[in-house]
Structures are given as C-alpha cells and as structure tokens.
Amino acid sequence: MSKPFVHSHAAHCESGVVSSLLTHAGYPISEAMAFGIGNGLTFAYLPIVKIDGMPLVAYRMPPKSILKTVEKRLGLDVKIKKYSNSQSAREDLIKMVDEGKLVGLQTSVYWLPYFPPEMRFHFNAHNLVVYGKNDTGFLISDPVFEHPVEVEYHALDKARFARGVFAPKGACYTIEKIPEKIDLVKAVKKAINRTCNMMLYTPFPWVGLRGIGMMKRAILKLPNHPHKRYASLYLGHIIRMQEEIGTGGGGFRLMYAAFLSECAEVLGRDELKTASSMMGEVGDKWRVFALSCSKACKGNTYSVEEIAQKLQECRDSEERVYRFLKGLKL
Amino acid sequence: MKRDEAPQDNIAMYHGGRKALYAVADEGKFEITQSSGWSVEEMATLQAVDEFERLEREAYQEWCEGKSSPLGVWMYRRRMSIATLSQCTGFWQWSIKRHLKSDVFKTLSPQKIALYCDILDITAEELFNPKEPK
How far does the CA of residue A1 sit from the closest CA of chain B (Å)? Predict the structure, then answer.
C-alpha cells in the first residue's frame, strides 16, 4: 500500500474524491464515470428549504449519495465513520494515515483555511482526501484545487466538526475492499436508466424536469416581490448554486456529457456519442441562462419573461436527451 | 462548450488558482480543462459577499448607537444569517432575534456566551467588542 498518491484536479468534490480513492485502491476510474455511475445528476428546487433566506436549488444529488451509489453499483466495501468529539476523530485519522490508508473526509467549506476568502460560505458537504501528515498538520488533496495543500490539525478539526445543516460530525470514509470482478456494463446501464427515470417521471413536483418548471414559475413571479433587492439576490443565488457551489460548470451537465461519451466506449454504442454532444449543448444552454441572469443582476432593466424563456430551453433540450436515452433501450 | 471557449476571465477571487471544467477537446471528446474563472460566477459570488458586508456594517452602526447587541456584527462577519446561526447553535430563531437586542444580550448566561464564542471562533472579549468592519 505504499504506492505514492497522485493528486488529480476534478470539477466536483465528491465525484473527484471517489475517483481518487478508487484509482489509488487499484481500480482506475475517471471523475465523470464516478459521477455518472453514482447517479450524481439531478435537478431539485426546494422552496421550503432555505439557504440564507433563498430556496435550495440543486443540480446534483444530496451529499454522500454519489459515494453510496457507487459503492452499491460496483459492489465495493466502503467504511464510513462518524465521531462524537474532535479529539478521537483526530487520533483515529492519524492512526489510519500511519497505516498508509487513503481517507476521504466530509468537511465545511467555511473553516478550510486554504479556500479563497471570497469563496468561504457555510456549506458543510465538501469532500477531500487525506493522504499523509507531517509535524503540524495533514497533507490534503482537495480535488477542486489544482495542487495538494497542507492543513493544520486544529483547523481541520474545526472544519470537520462544523455544525448546522449536513453537519459532518467528523465523517470519514475508506475503501476497504474492491471485488475481483466488476460488471461495469451493467452498472452503467442501470445508472443511465435511473437518472432518466428520475428526471422524466418523478412523482415530486420539485424534482427533475418538473422542478425546472417550478423554478421557472417562481422567476416569473419575481417582479411582484415587495423588496426590490430580492429579485437581483435571487437570480444571483441561482447562478452561485449552478456555477460555484459544487462547481461542475453548466450545472453538472458538461460532466454528464463526459460520462456519456465514456459510456459509448464501454457499451460499444455510437448512439451514446450523439447523446453526449446533446448533453453538452444542454450544459451550454444552462450557461446562457446563467449569463442572462447575471445581466439582470447588474442592470435595472430586464425582462423575467426572457430569463424564463432561456430556462424553458434548458428544460426542453434536457427532455430530448433523456427521451433519446430511453429510446436506446439500454 | 469547446476547449477554447472555456472562460478565462482571470477573476481575482481565485487568487491565481484555476478550476476544472469539462469541455470538448480536439477529437470531439469531453475532457477536463482548466479555467481561470468566469466573470458571471465572480459577479454572483461578490454580490453575496457584498450583501453580508452591507449587513455587517449596518449591524456595527446599530451597535455603536446602542440599538443592538454586538452578536449581529459577528453573525454577519462570519457570513451567517439568523437561520444559519440557529442551526449551528441549536437556539430557536426567535431567541437569537432576542439575543440581537442590546439589553437581552447583556443578561445572557456565561454558557450561552461560551457557545456563541465556540461557534463564531472568537474569544468573549472579541464578542463584546467587535472591531470596525473593513
């Protein structure tokens, strides 16, 4: 197990960590593949769950869902531990690092000292990899950063035991066992079908394509809001949820496109390449939508109809991709 | 998005760092591309940061005038809303609203003050005398 760890730069924290852990454990897998098999893609608009007074807008599944789904689909053995206090969590982490284990951690973003100050917000579901230690702290490979970093013991304790929504409670995870035979073809087929079904046929009005429709209706109602600043803050919030929180770009649609093009090779079906470029266009449409939101944030004159129209285009082109994928009968 | 279309706006908040994005490379395949930031993202993030700074300055002003407690200044300085602070401390939102009042804050027990200090990562001395916002 004394193989040197190689840091790789990823677009999203959780899929990046899963990819790093699996690759190091001897099963090389790309970030996009981990994201796809883990059913990372979704859309959810939850007006009841508030983040600083704004509705929750999510373009991917809740924290730890990628890890758990990949574990299930590939038949891995993943050990997740939580702790009641930071002292025992730190001691245990030191022990695991000394044994040469690669450990994934869930942390808060706000208390990580290497994050740029402008980007530090109270978001508790960030993921990173601990691959070693020195006298003062742990050596950390944060997949969304270009290079590995070093974090002092005390600072990492604070980030692991941040409180509030999704409180990590020191959560850490290791991959204990990888089965000798993995049926990637079956896993991929299942994952694609699951994502399509969720986006197209969900019974919940705030999830999938129905959720996009719900957000559109909320945008159309913005001019009626009594506070003038609200509309601008609301649209800014949507952009942040799409482009900054969890990153990914284009609300994770571009990463899913990368997954689909890998699937074309795994399954040997060229139609999936078409699906991949269709999904790429969806990602671009989401970026156009973000751009029109940002124009509205800056200037005073804008039309919510135009923004809603851009969102409708995202929804419609997404629907075409999922129907196309369903039509392939994987 | 093609590889050469990936935004390279060199936004200040990355401090020279770069972010990974997926874009179409030469052979029509999606690959990881480094981006130095997109001005749209920068605008949205700075808007959120500015909003917290504005609230912090307002809270500081009110504290100076004796209208409210210093807790509000620290809450916004740590980029928290009443809802976030409530989730972190376990206090109800209405009791945090009471703690934001100057006269109620003065009567808080040392345990409650200690909990606030722990959550906000400051000493009691700092909690009672916040420095002026930048």
Answer: 28
